Amino acid sequence: MKITLSGAYGRLSDREPFLIADNTDLTLEFESVFKTTDALIHVHNERAVKKYKHNIKEPFTVPVEFLHAGTLKIEVDLLKSGEVVKKFSVEPIKIKDLRMGFEGHAEVDALRQEIAEAYKAIGAAETQITELAERTASLTQQVTTEVSKSIERANEAQIKADAAVEAVQALININKQGE
């Protein structure tokens, strides 16, 4: 994999994930317009951090301890007379491990976890919505039943009131006839 050192960054020639399997090496070749060849290469990932003194005109093989699924970070310090004269931060190298059936990068796994949690939250929300809908339907049925009963009682009371009015009217009529 070629890395072009320019400005303050190191650009990768290939941004696709680096696939590792048994007996796979990751060899980095550096290109730079600077004449100095001595460099200090910082290699780090989630498990380890190490520095290596290296001639950047020669290929650098990343130690096997750094070759596992995830993100590999490289920084290059160019040296002149033992002093750092230029620093480069290389784009992160994504590593996909085929040896262990790994299916993605750390970022993909994090997104999968977030998606799984979102689906779990959606499932819980759907359950709550279903329970609320069932309770609402039950309450609606109860309210409808009570309103119907109240209307029925009101109708019965109206019928009794009408009968009472008729009885009073009949008594008034009888009383008028008796005079």
Description:
The protein is an alpha/beta fold and 179 residues long. The protein has a domain of 103 residues: Immunoglobulin-like, CATH 2.60.40. The protein is 40% helix and 34% strand. A hairpin with a 2-residue loop joins strand 8 and strand 9. The longest helix is centred in the last third of the chain and has 72 residues.
Sum this structure up briefly.
With 179 residues, the chain is of the alpha/beta class. It has one helix at residues 106-177; strands spanning 2-6, 9-12, 18-20, 26-32, 38-44, 49-55, 60-62, 70-80, 83-90, 93-97.
Brief descriptors of the model:
Immunoglobulin-like; 10-stranded mixed beta sheet
The overall average pLDDT, rounded, is 86
Provide the CATH architecture of the domain at 2-104: Sandwich
Oligomer: single chain
Shape: rod-shaped
Number of strands: 10
Q: Strand count, sense and closure of the main sheet? A: 10 strands, mixed
